[in-house]
Amino acid sequence: MEQVVRADITAFGAGRAEMANAMIEQSGLRVRPDRNRGRSAGINPSGRYEPMSRTVFDDGWNSLEELPPFKTEVQVEKPRTIITRNSSPDISFDRSINPYRGCEHGCVYCFARPTHAYMGLSPGLDFESKLFAKPDAAHLLSRELSKEGYQPRTIAIGTNTDPYQPIEKQYRIMREVLEVLEARQHPVGIVTKSALVTRDIDILSRMAEKGLAKVALSVTTLDRKLARTMEPRASTPSKRLEAMRQLHEAGIPVSVMVAPIIPGLNDSEVERILESARAQGAAEAGYVILRLPLEVSPIFKDWLLRHYPDRYRHVMSLIRSMRDGKDYDSEWGKRMKGSGPYAWQIGRRFEIAAKRLELNVEKRQLRTDLFEPGDRENEQLILI
User: Fold this and answer.
1) Residue 303 to residue 39: CA distance in whole angstroms
2) How many CB atoms lie within 10 A of CB 231?
3) Which of 81, 118, 313, 376 makes a 20 to 30 Å CA pair with 320?
4) CATH match for 73-356 among 3.30.70.141, 3.80.30.30, 3.90.70.10, 3.40.50.10800
5) Is 287 strand, coil or helix?
6) Would the CA dihedral through 234, 160, 108, 122 be positive or negative?
7) SS3 call for 268
């Protein structure tokens, strides 16, 4: 049986964690543990564009059917274009590629979760288990790079969902995209949490030799237990560090992203993460403060209540201290780094550690002068 219900755990306040926890359990909003095994999200709320929100509950007549665990399902998406443009003033790229929609890594804090609402799906468990693959990505990319007037600039991949998530082993879309970029000598910057990136060292090393490729590994924590609950299907922290070493030894510029930094949970690890990454060959580093836009906020809060109820009040208090008293502030220039004394302290700690380790001494700029547009498809022949 289903009951139409709406609930927002923000209504309970940071000081009433146990009450919020109990009410979520009783409302049926939280998915049974046997159904979300190996996933981070504990709830599957309807997207913000849906007219109703439904939840399963027991009416006392033992009529509640046994629902199966969430299994990874992949649908093929057929977009008309593959390069996404943006004009955001606080990020360093103006174009990107997302070979997949949704991400099986299941990072509970992922700011891309709300995009699943555009598909009529939940940013919760649906985001981790109902995925979309774009097998025509390489063909679309080749066509777009061939368009008259195209001006090359670095294409960022992995800025929304991870291009090396587990289903890439089967679909190999990312490798096909890299093959096109290599053939056209087009620069690419990759961000990932997966050691699977080392599979493509052959292509990336050839591109890096010409100044056309660099890779950033995101390392959120060195605590294996925390990583397993927070990013359950991403590579372990040690695997990511090992991937850095292999990439560096292959001549591929490597950087580390300490992202996201969650105050009261992993912010004490900033220096150790930078030291570990530097030891494996990382030459550049960056960081991002936790972002909780839209549906990400209740999903993260529910996770925090389940795994770290004793820290709930402290963590949420610190987050709000960096977001002008809110869970999130989307203002340009603030959304990545936060504001206030605690955000300032994290920023200074990061800068001091990076300077001590000689990170960011030189920012690697990728080349665009080698670009070869190739033959323009469907070009009209000239009559003589």
Assistant:
1) 11
2) 24
3) 118
4) 3.80.30.30
5) strand
6) negative
7) helix
- Side chain identity at residue 222, one-letter code: L
Cβ distance 21 to 54 under 8 Å? no
* Parallel/antiparallel/unpaired status of strands 130-133 and 100-101: antiparallel
DSSP 368: -
The span from the CA of 161 to the CA of 163, in Å, is 6
In the chain, where the domains are located: 73-356
Question: What DSSP designation does 62 have?
Answer: S
The DSSP call for residue 43 is B
Rounded to two decimals, the pTM is 0.89
* Residue-level pLDDT at 181: 98
Structure tokens at 36: 């979300």
* 28-80 pLDDT tens trace: 478 888 788 889 999 998 888 988 876 666 666 665 567 788 899 999 999 99
Lowest average pLDDT, out of 26-30, 206-210, 332-336, goes to: 26-30
- Give the single-character DSSP code of 286: E
Residue 284, beta-bridge partner list: 255
* Angstrom distance (rounded) from CA 39 to CA 273: 24
